[in-house]
Design a protein that fits this description.
The structure is a single chain. A 5-stranded mixed sheet has the order 3-2-1-4-5. Strand 4, helix 8 and strand 5 form a beta-alpha-beta unit. By secondary structure, the protein is of the alpha/beta class. The protein is 47% helix and 16% strand. The two termini are 28 Å apart.
Length: 255
């Protein structure tokens, strides 16, 4: 293994196993590889440019129209994130269908609304999601752990061991953290995983920025109200292994 990489992570749009009919239709998990000095400079630059009295800055500040230039700087080739961050996206409806149907997911996703009609299709998905939540008859529906697994696999491709600093999440309980560590016990790809409060680590704050703006940009594109410039700026960060069903929007978001 090459020298260890420490990756700061956060998510946006997490609602556990509630994938259908929730608050958000997209889940985003971001990982950034920045040293503390660069991350601190990034947060200070955002604060200096936005000049909000808020004690903690979030993605919502960057997404306001009047701060468009700051967002474009953050995602652009001249910003601190370019080449140093990735985002795993999950279109929740397709992710849910893929979990249940496997290889048949594409057919079900494409043909279900036409066969049942939009209203009955959505009612069916919501009801089935409610039925499946919490059961151990099917794989866990929460996309958070698969997103972390994908992050480890992607960032360890160059032979690095990966150490994760993650925003504290109730979904990352002791049992699930232990399961992740056990998964990589033989390969050594995962060197460690620790949970912190986002405001205590500026690198996690930057990951929070990226996850939040990525979720909003991707959701807008999914729903036909995408911003061509922002979608283009997000594209280099999007993990090609993201779980996405809508072919039109994926053609713009994915690589």
């Amino acid at each position: 293994m090459r020298p260890e990489l420490e990756i700061a992570c956060d998510e946006s749009g997490a609602e556990g196993e509630n994938l259908i009919g929730g608050v958000t239709d997209v889940f985003a998990h971001a990982g950034v590889v920045l040293d503390l000095a660069v991350a601190e400079a990034c947060v200070l630059e955002v604060r200096d440019r936005i000049r909000s009295p808020a004690s903690e800055y979030k993605a919502v500040h960057l997404l306001r129209g009047k701060h468009r230039a700051v967002l474009e700087w953050l995602l652009g080739t001249g910003g601190p994130l370019y080449g140093n961050a990735t985002v795993f996206l999950a279109e929740k409806t397709y992710y849910f269908i893929a979990k249940l149907m496997g290889e048949q997911a594409r057919t079900v996703y494409d043909e279900g609304p036409a066969i049942l009609g939009e209203e009955r299709w959505n009612t069916f998905l919501r009801s089935y999601n409610e039925l499946m939540r919490g059961t151990r008859l099917v794989p866990e529906l929460d996309p958070l752990l698969p997103a972390i697994v994908r992050l480890v696999e992607r960032w360890s491709e160059g032979g690095h061991a990966v150490s994760i600093v993650h925003d504290r999440q109730t979904a990352l309980n002791e049992e699930r953290v232990a399961r992740l560590k056990e998964l990589y016990a033989d390969s050594g790809k995962l060197a460690g995983l620790r949970l912190v409060a986002a405001r205590s680590d500026v690198r996690v704050q930057v990951a929070d920025f990226l996850a939040g703006v990525a979720r909003k940009i991707a959701s807008d594109e999914l729903n036909g109200r995408g911003d061509e410039v922002l979608t283009g700026l997000l594209k280099p960060y999007v993990d090609p292994a993201s779980v996405w069903g809508d072919l039109r929007s994926w053609g713009l978001l994915g690589r």
